[in-house]
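Appendix B, record 7
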Amino acid sequence: MRTANRIGRGLAWLAALALTAAGSAVHATSVREMTIVDLLAHSQVIVAGKVEKVSDGFAANGVPFTEVTLEVTDPIRGTKGKTHTFRQFGLEKPRTLPDGRVYLGGRPQGWPTWRQGEVALVFLYPKARLTGLQTTVGLGYGKLSLGNGRAINAYDNASLFSNVKVNRGLLTASERSLLDTSKGSVDARTLSRFLHRAVDGNWVQNGSIANAKR
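Structure tokens (predicted):
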């Protein structure tokens, strides 16, 4: 009963938090597109891997979460272990609480979905200070599905390389082709090499790559 009471007391607060999160998601996906510069600039962790496990539940403070564990295949920034686990806001589906009530607050619209066995490249914001929650930069912009040697996000990579200024003298021929892509899937290996070099060389910080004026 203690668990039910704890969750029950937090339902109103969680509903408000979910509405706020949903509003933020709408803003992030409909108002501001994200480029590769944005993904690099705002991510604390960049990692590719196979989704090993997906679960959901309520944290000790009553916040609903979906927990994702990746089997790491390409650690680019911020992680060195064989696996990387993070929690994003919201449940996978409605949940019946111990007291019989049904919590309907699931994942806000526009937030990434996760499936065991899928392979993805993810750019993750720093963890939230109060909740420890973490999600992809720009939501659907910061999760790229990997398959058949290609990489693509929820928006067909539209805007990913648009309006980006780069010192092209730093790029290989395949990377120059990558940066010229206006839409559609890109070669995953070339993207990985580009990201490693951009991170190791601090290209965003030193201005070697930047957003053009919007």
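Remarks on this record: The radius of gyration is 19 Å. Helices lie at 2-30, 36-42, 173-179, 188-200.
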